[in-house]
Amino acid sequence: MKRETLLKKMAPCGLVCHTCVAARGGVISELGKELLRLLGSFDGYAEALSQYEPRLKKYPQFREVLGLICEAGCEGCRNGQSKYPGCTIPLCEKERGVDFCHQCPDFPCDRADFDPLFKAKWLKANERMKEIGAEAFFEEVKDRSHYESPR
Description:
It is a single chain. By secondary structure, the chain is mainly α. It contains seven helices and no strands. Helix 2 packs across helix 4 and helix 6 crosses helix 7.
C-alpha cells in the first residue's frame, strides 16, 4: 500500500479513519447509504407494522440517526478536521515530522490528552504499529470495528 493511501486511512494517533462513523466516504457512512437505499419508503410500512411489532414505532428516530451517519463529513485530522476538540496530535505530528505517534522518540507522552478509554486504545495501537509496522497494523484492523480496542 502506498504511504499516501495509508495516511488517508489512518490518523496520526493510530485510529483507522475509514471505519469511523464520522468519516466522509468511510465504510459506515457508505453502508448507511446503502441501507437507506434498500429501505426506500419503508416509513409507511413501519407505521402499519408497528401494531404487530411495537419497536417499529421508533423507526423514524432510527432513520434520523441513520441519516446523520450518512452525512458523515470528516475529511480527517491530517486535513485539519479533527472531530476531537483540542486534539494536539496532528500538530505534534507535523512539528515532529512523523506519520504516527509511535515514531516519535517521546512516545508515549502527555501531549496526547485523551480520556482513559481512548488513551488505552491509542497506546495499544501505537505499540502494535511499533512492533509490526503501520501497514501490517492496518491490515490487521481494517475490517474491525472502529470502537473495539486493538488486540
